[in-house]
Amino acid sequence: MEMSQRAQRGPHDVQDPDPYLPGHGDLAFEVESYEIRLDYRVSSNRLDAWVEIVAVANQVMTLIRLDLHGLEVSKVRVNGNRPARYSSRGGKLRIRLAAAVARGDRLVIVVRYGGQPGPVPSIWGDVGWEELSDGVIVAGQPGGAPSWFPCNDRPDSKATYRMSVTTESAYAVLANGLLVGRRRGASRTTWTYEQSQPMATYLATVQIGRYERRTLAGSAVPVGLLAPPKLQNAAMAAFALQPAMLRVFADLFGPYPFDEYTVVVTPDDLEIPLEAQGLAVFGANHIDGRLGLERLVAHELAHQWFGNSLTLGHLSDIWLHEGFACYAEWLWSERSGGRSADALARRHHRRLAGAAQDLLLADPGPAAVFDDRVYKRGALALHALRLALGDDAFFAMIRAWASEHRFGTVSTKLFEEHAARYGRAGALLRRWLHGMPLPDLPPA
Predict the structure, then answer these.
(1) Helix (H, G, I), strand (E, B) or coil at 17
(2) Mean confidence (pLDDT) of the chain
């Protein structure tokens, strides 16, 4: 939605920015930065926290609406004034402004809050802050950010972050960005991270555990590995090819978009790995001490380009994340001496041909956002486009896509317009994206 359209809304209008995520986010303002300070006790799951949000109004505003789930607010200030009036219910923190602000005005919002954080229920399961057997994992996709900090929970409202986490010194803390400070006290340590590249709220994360850090050599980008001591050897073996993958993807997609990349292996089993900006998290069950997890490792790494640097504005465009990451699995196989992307594409095409033909890739509906057909059909659409354009044009198109929209918000429409610059593939893409029957793949 363009700024001029946003400005036409009245000061008390409420509109869901994304119908797939009702009740999340507000189009009335954009956040420029979050500074988050957490004081957390692992044994009691007790959080005492403070956040400063710097935002800009998109319209006349008398009320600020922030997303916050299950935590209690104790004080709010806006622009340094005396404590503001506020109420909290239904996952929304509503802050009444002392006077209306105009479009373009800057807001500095400070909130003190705390409690026992827990995940946000959703149709995809619980997402957000979650206790491990000994530590914490934050898996925010797609609507879990309000489980641990007040925010404008919209993926298209990207901001910079500074996060300080104080917890018991026996635990290591990882958050997004670069570690810029670690101050140890008698029994507690404060870890401070800065994420200078713009980031969507759902990609913000904190990982807390009894981890040891190792470095994986062989990449121009620093690659770290955090794992419990008993899993260190198995984790080093499982991620031995991570630097090589990073080199291959930098060649195919363009330079790695962030300052470093870190993989976390939790002491607990996890259903699936997950990505956050600049890092990925795997469960103990994913680490088998061999190189049998290349597909998952490649998939999560590819999200740093497609999902984290280039981020959808609406969940209906999820194929731009998952289809690209799935195709990256096939490209890694091809580049590393495994099966070709074409062979893998034709195998998955045969499987999809036998599945229900009722999925619209460009708008799958909320319940099907994480349907495996979105992943595979998205990857097949890219392979069909590659066959139609040829390798030189296709990979030039992908590198330009990643470069021109670096740290930005993307959409299916934007990708179709971008791809059209490299050849006459509009009709082909329309069949894959906007039709339900599975199209045939072009000849190899």
Answers:
(1) coil
(2) 94
212 and 226 Cβ atoms separated by less than 8 Å? yes
pLDDT range class, residue 288, cuts 50, 70, 90: confident
Separation between Cα atoms, residue 245 and residue 253, nearest integer Å: 12
pLDDT digits (tens, 9 = 90+) for 32-41: 999 999 999 9
Q: Are 63 and 152 members of one domain?
A: yes
SS3 (DSSP) at 167: strand
Query: Poorest-confidence range of 22-26, 80-84, 361-365, 375-379?
Result: 80-84
Measure the CA–CA gap between 205 and 232, rounded to whole angstroms: 22
Which of 209, 233, 262 is a domain's end point?
209
pTM > 0.70:
yes
What is the DSSP-derived secondary structure letter of residue 267?
A: S
Tracing tokens 């209906």 back to the chain, one arrives at 316
Phi, psi (degrees; rounded to nearest 5) at 423: 160, 170
Contact call for residues 432 and 361 (beta carbons, < 8 A) = yes
Question: What are the C-alpha distances in Å from 53 to residues 78, 147, 301, 392?
Answer: 9, 16, 30, 44
Amino acid identity, position 122: S
Please, how many CA atoms are within 13 Å of residue 153, restricted to the half-sphere of its CB?
30
329, 241 contact by CB (below 8 A)? no
- Distance, CA of 24 to CA of 92 (rounded, Å): 9
- Does 253 share its domain with 190? no
* CA–CA distance, 109 with 68 (Å, rounded to integer): 14
DSSP code for 147: G
Q: Are 177 and 278 in contact (CB under 8 A)?
A: yes
Same domain, residue pair 179 and 279: no
* CA–CA separation, 396 and 378 (whole Å): 19
In a domain, 441, yes or no: no
